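Components:
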Amino acid sequence: MLIYNVTSKVNWNVQQEWLDWMINIHVPEVIATGLFSKHQLVRLQEVDDIDGPTFAVQYYLDSKENYEQYITRFAPVLRAKAVAEWGDNVISFRTLMEVIN
Amino acid sequence: MLIYNVTSKVNWNVQQEWLDWMINIHVPEVIATGLFSKHQLVRLQEVDDIDGPTFAVQYYLDSKENYEQYITRFAPVLRAKAVAEWGDNVISFRTLMEVIN
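Structure:
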């Protein structure tokens, strides 16, 4: 099993709006690709949040093929939409993890 | 629900030994505290691993009280054991995350 983890540092000014957009629009669009088996949205605690809070979404995948398909077929458009919507107010980075135990 | 995430960058020289120790000794000791509801060990993919691979264990907790108890009563000894065992061969950092959706 794989976890595609997207961490986002969000400007305080847009925090609530961004969270609503994530929960109601963006995450459902990612899930609608049918490539993920489950997901969860988390907020990091006890980190430096002077500039804004940090969130992460962990999307679970059953295979590397699903991941490759997501990255090539869907991610470019979904990322472009996010950038168009939030610009510099949200900085995201992505990690792929394999569950080994 | 909370996730206590411990990320470790492991020197290639000790990678297999460390993994065995994690799976057979350290993680079972953490779980034996009875404070965690589930856990998973993951390996980061597609990261710079010239110096060694990066792993993370995500320990799930039902409450902040369980976390506080772990940090005050158990973490100091378990961390000291890890440092005594692996020294500079393993560099770990910890994050607490709250599942919000």
